[in-house]
Amino acid sequence: MIVWLNGTHGVGKTTTSALVQRLIPGSRVLDAEKVGETLMDITPGLPATDNFQHWAPWRPLVVDTARRVLEYTGGTLVMPMTVLVEEYWREISEGLAGHGVEVRHVVLHADPATLRTRILEDHAMGPSPFRLAYVDAYAEAARTWLHDAAHVVDTTDRTPQQVAEQVVATVNAVAPADARR
User: Fold this and answer.
1) Which of 105, 129, 169, 177 is deepest in the core (most CB within 10 A)?
2) What is the CATH number for 94?
3) Residues 6+ apart with CB under 8 A from 136
């Protein structure tokens, strides 16, 4: 099974994924961003883009990497990764389903004002123009498709530990037939 933690940059996916891993026995974190970083190392050769998710190989490579890791290790993968383009999410989730991999899609949510404040006050990464640039794109995806395609956990007034516990409770409460893709 995969617990896919979606949501915009700065909402807490990386922090939450480490905490979720501690709460789900036999789980591992697989950051799909590493697949994008690998593709970014292929220079020159790939078209210029502001987001490696736009490169066609990224999505099937994420699917193949995740399924092969699961075949090798078993257990649960916790995958923190922002995916705001519906077509890309469909390609990934349908690809995983085609390999018999169950996906529990959870969106970590915070309102735009809270997100901007968190990003601007982030002591580890500092104020990030890249992260700020995705706040409005997240709000649009949430409004048009993303919240309908996932279980939403509001992070606004929760500690990271509370968010992780809510994610695990959500994952455990979802029957396989009810898992959103």
Assistant:
1) 105
2) 3.40.50.300
3) 112
Angle in degrees, CA 165, 93, 52, rounded to 5: 95
Q: What are the backbone angles phi and psi of residue 126, rounded to the nearest 5°? A: 75, 175
Alpha carbon 111 to its chain's center: 17
* pLDDT, tens digit (0-9, with 9 covering 90-100), for 102-122: 999 999 999 999 999 999 998
Confidence band for 79, pLDDT divided at 50, 70 and 90: very high
22: containing domain: 2-178
Provide φ and ψ at 42, rounded to 5°.
-85, 85
Tokens of 22: 């501690």
pLDDT, tens only, 8-62: 988 999 999 999 999 999 999 999 999 988 888 886 777 878 789 988 999 999 9
Q: In which residue are the tokens 């994008």 written?
A: 36
Question: In total, how many domains does the chain have?
Answer: 1
What is the C-alpha to C-alpha distance for residues 59 and 128, in angstroms, rounded to an integer?
25
Cα separation, 2 vs 13, in Å, equals 14
